């Protein structure tokens, strides 16, 4: 019995010491500050944008205006800088300080008006070097104008990228990391659009802006393996007025000739986010058959799983 009493007494002392020690640590000077700092670090880590996985290859529509975020091989590219693009990229959790490049399919005001906001958002996210911008002929004054707007609050954050030589039907090398490469087709003449092809591990994504020529979409698909496509298109039937966008019929024909395994069509009509317009676009695309293109609203993505691209919608 004496041994048991000793054991119980020893246990009581241990528990008391443990509770007392915890109380001392929790209430010592500076403990509350440390707890606050620890909680703040956890919240900051949770809010920090996640870099794309090294094996991911997907493209997500990030705004109703021209904006597509492409993640490939651990790199991040923004295509288009329309109104709301910076906010859309941030909502995807991809406005981080290591975005690799911004690529413009054309220089129409609808495509470039979000450039200052993207530059500002990148700087606020911690970017310390200028974001490279690639685009068709006439890019330099557009970049200079955006930097002039941003310079009122912080140093210029955009710089024209240096491209490779034009290789004719094989396009122009715009970016090449050794793992991910991007080629541009068209856009050599002022006012013309450009089609981009992103290649990663034997898979290809075509991205055509509003003013892309069907011939350039087809050229971009040449030598592409398992191509998928995101294209902006217009329709006089829905808009009721002339549009700068390539018409839907021409886009569908070009994508068909490009043999894209999966394709997303983004309505060039700024009013197409309205429910009635969305349904009308879906009716038009339904005529392309059950395996035809899908309408691309904000959050729609194309993702390569193995060699097969699939279309999905990002959960909000």
SSE topology sketch:
Blueprint: H1 2-27, H2 31-47, E1 57-61, E2 68-72, E3 75-79, H3 85-91, E4 101-103, H4 109-112, H5 115-124, E5 131-134, H6 139-150, E6 158-160, E7 172-176, E8 180-186, E9 194-200, E10 203-208, H7 214-221, E11 228-233, H8 236-239, H9 248-258, E12 262-267, H10 275-286, E13 294-295, E14 300-305, E15 308-313
Parallel strand pairs: 3-4, 4-5, 5-6, 10-11, 11-12, 12-13
Antiparallel strand pairs: 1-2, 1-14, 2-3, 7-8, 8-9, 9-10, 14-15
CATH architecture verdict: 4-Layer Sandwich
User: What is the name of the CATH class?
Assistant: Alpha Beta
Note poorly predicted spans: 7-26, 42-47
Shape: globular
Q: Can you give the mean pLDDT?
A: 81
SSE string, helices as H and strands as E = HHEEEHEHHEHEEEEEHEHHEHEEE
In DSSP terms, counting alpha (H) and pi (I) runs of 4 or more, how many helices?
Answer: 10
How much of the sequence lies in strands comes to 15-25%
Tell me the distance between the termini. Answer: 65 Å
- CATH fold call: Metallo-beta-lactamase, Chain A
The CATH superfamily bears the name: Ribonuclease Z/Hydroxyacylglutathione hydrolase-like
* Biggest pleated-sheet summary: 8 strands, mixed
What does this structure look like?
By secondary structure, the protein is α/β, with parallel strands linked by helices. The chain has a single domain, classed as Metallo-beta-lactamase, Chain A (4-Layer Sandwich). The chain contains ten helices and 15 strands. The protein has helices spanning 2-27, 31-47, 85-91, 109-112, 115-124, 139-150, 214-221, 236-239, 248-258, 275-286; strands at 57-61, 68-72, 75-79, 101-103, 131-134, 158-160, 172-176, 180-186, 194-200, 203-208, 228-233, 262-267, 294-295, 300-305, 308-313. An eight-stranded mixed β-sheet has the order 6-5-4-3-2-1-14-15, with helices on one face. A seven-stranded mixed β-sheet has the order 7-8-9-10-11-12-13. Helix 3 (85-91) packs parallel to helix 5, helix 5 (115-124) packs across helix 6 (139-150) and helix 7 (214-221) packs parallel to helix 9. The longest helix is centred in the first third of the chain and has 26 residues, at 2-27. It is globular and about 60 Å long. It starts with a helix and ends with a strand. Residues 7-26 and 42-47 have low confidence and may be disordered.
